[in-house]
Amino acid sequence: MRLISISLFLCAALGAALDAATADLIVSAGKVVTMDGQRRVIENGAVAVVKGRIVAVGPKAEIDRAYTAARRIDRPTAILTPGLVNAHAHAPMALLRGIADDRDLDDWLRNFIFPAEAKNVNEEFVRVGTRLAVLEMMQGGITTYADMYYYEHAIADETRKAGMRGVLGQTIIGFPAPDYKTPKEALAATERYILAFKNDALITPSVAPHAIYTNSAETLTAARELANKYGVPYLIHVSETKKEQVDAAAAHKMSPTQYLESLGALTGRTVMAHMVWADAADLAVSKKREAGLVHCPSSNTKLASGVAPVPAMLKEGLRVGLGTDGPAGSNNDESLFEEMDLAAKLAKVTTMDPKTLPAQAVFEMATLGGARALTMEKEIGSLEPGKRADLIAVSTQSAHAQPAHDPYSMLVFALKSSDVTDVVIEGRITVENRRALTLNEAEVLRQAAAIRAKVDASLK
Amino acid sequence: MRLISISLFLCAALGAALDAATADLIVSAGKVVTMDGQRRVIENGAVAVVKGRIVAVGPKAEIDRAYTAARRIDRPTAILTPGLVNAHAHAPMALLRGIADDRDLDDWLRNFIFPAEAKNVNEEFVRVGTRLAVLEMMQGGITTYADMYYYEHAIADETRKAGMRGVLGQTIIGFPAPDYKTPKEALAATERYILAFKNDALITPSVAPHAIYTNSAETLTAARELANKYGVPYLIHVSETKKEQVDAAAAHKMSPTQYLESLGALTGRTVMAHMVWADAADLAVSKKREAGLVHCPSSNTKLASGVAPVPAMLKEGLRVGLGTDGPAGSNNDESLFEEMDLAAKLAKVTTMDPKTLPAQAVFEMATLGGARALTMEKEIGSLEPGKRADLIAVSTQSAHAQPAHDPYSMLVFALKSSDVTDVVIEGRITVENRRALTLNEAEVLRQAAAIRAKVDASLK
Q: What is the value of pTM for the model shown?
């Protein structure tokens, strides 16, 4: 990479006509928001890609002198950014979108979600639901998502086919699930799943014990051992509701985070979703263990769980990403643009300080922060030579985005998922001019409607 | 209207081939969310329009038997709803979009907004800014907006030309403004403006004293007298920030609402924006005076003003609408879909009850509630025979909106401004298939960019 930078520099400095190297793809845009170490925003910039990796980022004129490419995407008025990272999702629940809103969590889970899942979730459901969610996420500029659901090997297979990057956690839960009947069965299957996908360029297979209140200490510990055996992430819901805190205090005399720490369950790659009720001591443990934390503002407000202490997390230098959570009542969509906007506004109003969580910090959570939360910051989250080529172009040519101004402010407060025009993941164009290339949109929507009709009938 | 209903009934009952009447326009859709007295949602419904008014709403088959129309919009998979009502805006500030984010209100106003306005706001600025904002609002399904700004006669002229409905308040403020140098001058000009537009089908000219802290008691009273002389609305910011409460208590020994009441300034059509810090006594006064209240969740969170007591307002049966506020740092866009989503989530998390402010109640705030806040519920806010034909079609054919479910839930939690395909205002199609028909989009964006370049230069 150093060599390329130097040759670009020489080329620009001397105006010499060096022989151009060959790239697989060049993407250029009016502004390139790199999120690199200097947080450079390059006017009329471009990114060159070779074999799924970024090889150069710089002014378009320089990139064009240094590289030729068979495939190009040129968007002179768009903003080019790293692909967004959705650090907490339950993709197949897209099929249960809006199945029951405006209800108490307990009513929602017991009377709608659990019955709907028990009656309907099978491998076919999961495959169609994943295609639907991946389509929505890709069209909205998400290039990596972290997932916790059932039949995760099928989710991984569909995600890979669609060309999407995923950190995909097989659920381990202490009651009979749609896929496996016992945690032991689930753990054994998870190991087979890890072995099948562990060398995949797009898929990071993961272990996902649901929560401390749905798993025994033995299961939580066994899941950690399995994760560490293969160096894969351990995804878990932590401190989502006040009830979880109260119950943990009653059962274990400590917070959920402290309980996990006491079990040795935080010794390795860990992604803790929600952390709404985390206190300073919990954040200190998270820091010590370098755990990733995921803020899910739509879910936490819609389900009235509370507001996570994001400013404190960032002040402590923790690894904090953003997540949509599932779209079945806790959101009900999968737009990281909306999560950015809401995260900023919530942080400001809860601290009664409009300076809290400025746009750039929020955009960082949606990109490099999410990458750090998933311990993937060396691979994704910014546009830098050597990183995987995950990038998106966002149109600014609309009434809601004009006049143009600070790009971070535009990305967080004005631009929408619907403004994303092009998506590249691992160097492959998956969305071009708003059209999905790796999924058949009409077919996916048709399949989703057909399955939902069955779900609705099953609940009558 | 009664006659039409009976004839429709007879027609359906007897299967008779009555001679079809002629409508100017028929709009049909997969679902019609009427917001009528019975809150009917009609499957495969349609609306017939004659001379800018709705003449019939019912099943498409019945409407098609009863009417023929030269113009039709048929959207078999869309949701047809009343046009959205943005009950608090500052349209021309679209040109100042994102001019300064993440700052204290005082810093933002004194160092950015006021200098930018003093140096740049003239009639041309206001005209271009209005075109930009109206374009954004119309494309996002807003058919009526309430505005408070300078040169309001020019805003009214542009709004009318674009075919948009507006309740447009000329600002009265106790310091030299871009248009008028004294409140007295402004009041005189406002009367001329009212006279010029008072019989307009689209424009409701209004009087807009900025706030109690920027106007003398004499001005607040004179503005009320002027409003009542012509029966037009009195638009004012009330209880937006805690500072306003504290200052009112110090200066007047009462709340801003009580102060206005003590001046007799609430005796007539009144629209009070924000009401973040309103207490039970303030709400009681609002009820007694039948004042309209406008909740602006994006602005109130982004500027860290606080969260208005919306559940209490609705419980008291008050007239409550939703507003975007201006897009220059307090939002930064003008999407009522986002305001709906945020209003619901904020109400849930601040009450720690997910049942608070369910989707249908939120959608009502964005339509009939806004109409009631503007005292226009007999004219707009629902799809009913006799009302003005303001309606929108919203596409459901996207990954984020499928599978289809409860239409209120979809409208509030999943659908976006970008899903609006068609807009009809006063019976005129202003947006068709997402394309604005009454404004030249490319030209508006170009003009906006040119003015913003001047604004940015003026601040250097």
A: 0.95
